Sequence to fold (125 residues):
Amino acid sequence: MGEAFMVAKRAGVDMRTMFDCIRASSGNSFVFETGGPMLMQGTYDPSFTIALQCKDNRLGYQMATKHKVPIEILGHAMQAYNKAMYKYGDDAPCYIAPKMLEEALQTDLRCEEFENWEYSIQNVD
Fold:
């Protein structure tokens, strides 16, 4: 997700427009809808740690290995998340991995329109 946001930012795409377009498309997910704004706020979701994310990734990988299911993409994701955990510490927020890209490219993913953004779930009958 961070890479997609960075491509958009460096290409001059309006970040809010990009978010709204993906949110209204088949590319939407809970992670995108909640994590994307947290990247653009710079909070990276402090409610769940990178250590827990890495543990969940390992459990998924172990289950796939046990059942002989090749999952190359998870292997790549695990490398990125582990690298972020080693760099920022176990208690870093779970979406911290894109910060490494921000630092490497000296370009942040902030978008003022998400400064006071909140996510809530309303039960609609």
In short: The CA atoms of residues 23 and 42 lie 19 Å apart. The radius of gyration is 16 Å.
